[in-house]
Amino acid sequence: MTVKIHQADRGSVIDRWPVLMPSFVWLFALAAGFIASVLRGADVESLLPLFLAGALPGIIGVVLSRFTDREWIQIILMLSWAGLAVMACVTLGFMPLALLLITVPAIASLFQREKVLEGIVIAALMAIITWVAAGQDFLPEPPFANTAVGDWASLSAMSGLLAFILSTLFATALRRSQVSLETGRTYWRDGVEGGLFEYDATGQLSGTNEQGLAQFAGNVPSDLMDFLPEDHADQAPFVAVVDLARRTFNAQVLRVSHAASGETANYDLRITPLTTKGWLVHACDRTDAEAQLEVLRQNGATAAQDSTDKTLFFAGVSHELRTPLNAIIGFSDMMRSRLFGPLPGKYAEYADLIHESGQHMLDLIGDVLDMSKIEAGRYELNYDTFDAADVIRSSVKMIRPAADAAEVVIDVNLDLDQALLIQADRRAVRQILLNLLSNAVKFSHKGGHIDVDAQAIDGDLELSVSDTGVGMSAEELSRIGDPYLQGEAGQTSDERGTGLGLALVQSLTELHEGKVNVRSEKGEGTRFKIILPLQVD
Predict the structure, then answer these.
(1) Which residues pair with residue 199 across a beta bridge?
(2) What's the pLDDT at 15?
(3) How sure is the predictor about 493, in pLDDT bands with cuts at 50, 70 and 90?
(4) For residue 431, which of 529, 347, 507 has the smallest C-alpha distance?
(5) What are phi and psi of 110, to 5 degrees?
(6) How far apart, in whole angstroms, are the C-alpha atoms of residue 119 and residue 103?
(7) If 0-12 CB within 10 Å is exposed, 13-18 middle and 19+ buried, where does residue 254 land?
(8) Element (H or E) spanning 516, and its range?
């Protein structure tokens, strides 16, 4: 489907019509009177000069109607009608032919409003000059006054004047409505972001806005298909969109590339069918937006690659550190156990400190390695079916020495009559518990209390760890799960960590498609509830 579109010519029939209408009406009135007089037996040779002289302003109006936007053409038209009135007064008598001077401001009303005043001045000057000249006998007696030819001329002139005035009033109203409509449409077009192109039912371009001219460097597409570049291989999608808009009478949008002014630009074309069977095409330039989007894509890809490189670096370094740490822990453990004989008191204390510090560092490195795997999407869960109660007891047993040293009591509340069988990753569940318990011990005061509860409810395992420690503020609660961030208590604690404990808890729980609920108040303690599905879907 091809929609032919041509630029509307300057001075089209529609634009010329306000001037053409009264000119044609005047010529028609004169011709009708001339024919009627000839049919009654009037002398054609006597009437013809008067007819041609009277028709001259109408003929001038028809010929010059294409150029009425020029001021000197408007002056010529007004003077031609004034000349007709003066000629009528000189040849037929001042009264009532002086009324023909009304044609001057009447024709002026078809142009700008200020031209009406000029027309009145011209008509008044011509009337005064003619009247004075006749009164002072500067002019000869009207040769056709009180003759049959004069009667015909006077009657035709008066009837033509009446028709001329009526048609001029109608043409003036038409011109003003046209200008008002065009002005409104221009304001509407220029108020739209991007190029706006309006096509009529015949496919002719009826208007565009300044942005449209600027987009295409003044070379507005003369055919709807010209919105595509000449070397566009496949025009089928564009044709399909235009056809769909025509059939459904709904606006359609398509992105195209077009070499508007030597450089290829990207446009979003919104093609809207109008009720007048025409088209409205809105071309929004997306070249800069596409360039910015491409920059954002590249920055995003770079950031993702940097994040991946960082994660891989952490994983690699963490893995490499584990080997010497295991050796340090192993040798310090041998020294602590006096495997090769007793040690002096101070060295034995140092061996204990080396073992504890190495074990703590190994735990931290394990957290970093696990978090790196989760961020890289490489942490794999190994599901099996086990009793969650066994994992809870073993985890509490592992953390109890630290709790005893901190003088914190841990109570485990399990329903012995209820089975807590769960399908999950045993190591991940244990790590969740150990992180929650170690945090609870770390931030509890001496004499504090920790409760561990677990029960199966509606197909889920609800595991909660509550403490009576320092608690968290609302801001700290909102940041739970952010890696490498610690709360105020963690920053002031003697037992510093990576800040990954709670982030690992949340990430591992979400990997199991579970939920983490936290309730805490500053100085009142904290309660973590972990909800894990008992079975894998």
Answers:
(1) 205, 279
(2) 58
(3) very low
(4) 507
(5) -80, -10
(6) 9
(7) middle
(8) strand 515-521
Q: Per the omega criterion (within 30 degrees of 0), is the bond before 96 cis?
A: yes
CA–CA distances in Å: residue 520 to residues 458, 465, 498: 25, 12, 21
Q: For 46-84, how does the pLDDT look when each residue is reduced to its tens digit (9 = 90+)? A: 778 878 888 888 888 888 888 877 888 888 888 888 888
pLDDT for residue 487: 46
Say what the pLDDT of residue 185 is: 53
pLDDT at 452 over 90: yes
Question: Which two tokens mark 54?
Answer: 């009277």
Q: Looking at the predicted structure, is the pLDDT value of residue 148 above 80?
A: no
The mean of the pLDDT values for the chain is: 76
CA distances to 53, 298, 438, 464, 468 from 432, rounded to whole Å, are 110, 37, 10, 11, 19
For the domain made up of 383-533, the CATH class stated in words is: alpha beta
Q: Which amino acid is at 21?
A: M
Residue 6: pLDDT above 50? no
Question: Which residues are 387's β-sheet partners?
Answer: 421
For helices 148-190 and 13-39, angle between their N-to-C axes, nearest 10 degrees? 170
Nearest Cα to Cα of residue 242 among 209, 207, 276, 280: 280
Which three-class secondary structure string do you get for 388-435?
HHHHHHHHHHHHHHHHHHCCCEEEEEECCCCCCEEEEEHHHHHHHHHH
Please report, as a single letter, which amino acid is at residue 363: D
Q: What is the DSSP letter of 65?
A: G
CA Rg, the chain, in Å? 49
Task: Give the pLDDT of residue 463.
Answer: 93
Amino acid at residue number 66: R
Tell me: domain 195-285, CATH 3.40.50.2300, correct? no
Spatial strand order of the sheet with 252-259 comes to 205-208, 195-199, 279-285, 264-273, 252-259
321-342: b or e for each residue (b if 16 or more CB lie within 10 Å)? beeebeebbeebbebeeeeeee
Helix (H) or strand (E) holding 521: strand 515-521
> What whole-number distance in Å separates Cα of residue 26 and Cα of residue 31?
9
Q: Do 291-375 and 383-533 agree at the fold level?
A: no
Phi/psi for 200 (5° steps) reads -85, -175
Whole-number Å distance between alpha carbons of 114 and 125: 17
Contact of 108 with 167, CB cutoff 8 Å: no
Q: Give the global pTM.
A: 0.45
Q: What is the largest CA-CA distance in the chain?
A: 157
Mean pLDDT in residue range 217-226: 61
CATH 3.90.70.10 fits 291-375, yes or no: no
The string over 270-298, giving b where at least 16 C-beta atoms fall within 10 Å of a residue's C-beta and e elsewhere, is bbbbeeeebbbbbbbbbeeeeeeeeeeee
Structural domain boundaries in the chain: 13-189, 195-285, 291-375, 383-533
How far is Cα 253 from Cα 272, in angstroms, rounded to an integer? 9
Q: Which residue has the tokens 């015949």?
A: 202
